């Protein structure tokens, strides 16, 4: 019956500090802080004696401990937006991606990472926007490439850019590491998916920080991991086997080898992915910084057409 | 899997697993199959893909002795059965190029011994998420010069290829000629289209006939594609990536074999529906050779059978001996009741 919190307080005097701060933020806890276990116990019994009382929220906009998210009420962050389900259903937004980007590839090499993504925004089967950039520079040691819904990527870009500005304003000489961005993004994406309102993207984060290369993956479900080679979308089926084969033979590549591998994979994706395009961008992150090259094109060879002749 | 007998009690009902007894589903070959045509350039004019000027391979007719033996028996390999043994008309052999060149003076296809078709497949058959057969054979015999890889529903692939093989032999006996790959392809597509995709067989048909090496991919609904290289099955994207990357129209046999084996290996390693070994089948003018297995990408661990660890397996880093001090608190003596 008693809220979870009070049980914690009665357990140890060391949590005395937590009580006043908590009380101050929420403003709904009893005025007297838990100075000793006796008063807390008294409060507990008083609450039990008082019968049912709603559990006090621990944090704004989220359910009390033990309760589930209330999907029917609009969230505090989005006032005025009514439930699309017409009351009774969760408030959902992105359920189907509209303008989409296809695979993003990433490979680690000795001294950095390289990420590539083509410049096409498909509207279903229509090649609608043929000169969009799906790679963003986060800061001098991180880049981010996204596949999936382009609008959600643009929103993410806006949020991350603002985050970087705020961080620079602190002026403490620190900048976000690629691992930090990856970690934050994982939590952000997972939180959105848990509210049934995902950012419909699969993101590849690459960077070079403190002498180490970083390559991480986050998708719209919040699945996150790091790997020396990454590919999203169709690239996972077509390019990933090739990349893994190369890395198995030679675990640490040079920058030129990594770039060459990416270019070969982009060529194969152009041949075999029906939603790809022959214009792509390449982002290379080394300790010198971020270099975004583009637009580049693969050289295609259609000579095998001459080999296809005869009866069927 | 045999069908289960009805359980005698509730405990036995759980023997089949958490879902209880489930009948075995149609086994699928979630697969990687691939094929390519290799040709070493400079070995002849190359294959025009068709039957040449006359539309009919005159060499075949000649070989059957329909035109009489004349005086044109020369040296050369009989393409039927590959070596001269089993050739028609009392072991008569004839050289295609010389006959044609002399008779027609035209550029008719010259099938060099250094070109052919290589077919490859993995060896895993899955039943949903369980490996039903870890070493099945997916490269099926159609004719001595034609083989077919099968993906999709295992039973459909198996029965379809057997039906094809049977009909090709009958047809070949009827025509008196070596079966052609295009004929096999036509048979397959006419049958599969008739069944509107319900026969879930995805096939890669390859062979060398009198008109040269040919490779076709056949889909369950009956569409076919004539290609220099192709792959099918659940591991198809992985295999086609390797083939797209490294295929050249001009390759030696060894290089082509390695490429195809690498393509199947990519499927074996990256696709969960494919696994175990890589089988190859090389078909040339001289005949077909099945290499089973050609490669084992993931070697199995050796079962030792002995699991006792000899003394000293675990290194002792340090030893500390502390006496266990016990204090005698209480002593009771109870007599044993033996009455």
Textual characterization of the structure:
The complex is a heterodimer of chains A (312) and B (339). Chain A has 312 residues and is an alpha+beta fold. Chain A is 32% helix and 23% strand. In chain A, strands 1, 4, 5, 6, 7, 8, 9 and 10 form an 8-stranded antiparallel β-sheet that branches. A 5-stranded antiparallel β-sheet of chain A has the order 11-2-3-12-13, with helices on one face. In chain A, β8 and β9 form a beta hairpin. In chain A, α6 (235-249) packs antiparallel against α7 (255-272). Chain A is globular, with a radius of gyration of 26 Å. Mean pLDDT of chain A is 81; it is low at 1-37, 42-47 and 75-87. Chain B is an alpha+beta fold. Chain B has a domain at 25-39 and 113-295: Glutamine Phosphoribosylpyrophosphate, subunit 1, domain 1. Chain B is built from 8 helices and 13 strands. In chain B, the strands form 3 sheets. In chain B, strands 1, 6, 7, 8, 9 and 10 form a 6-stranded antiparallel β-sheet that branches. In chain B, strands 11-2-3-12-13 form a 5-stranded antiparallel β-sheet, covered by helices on one side. In chain B, α5 (154-175) packs across α6 and α7 (236-246) packs antiparallel against α8. The A-B interface holds A 234, 237-242, 244-245, 264-265, 267-268, 271-272, 303-304, 307-312 and B 37, 48-50, 182, 185-186, 189, 211, 214, 216, 224-228, 237-238, 240-242, 244-245, 247, 249, 262, 266-267, 269-270. Chain A: It is found in: Cytoplasm; Nucleus. Chain A: One of its GO terms (cellular component) is cytoplasm. Chain A: Keywords: Cytoplasm, Nucleus, Proteasome.
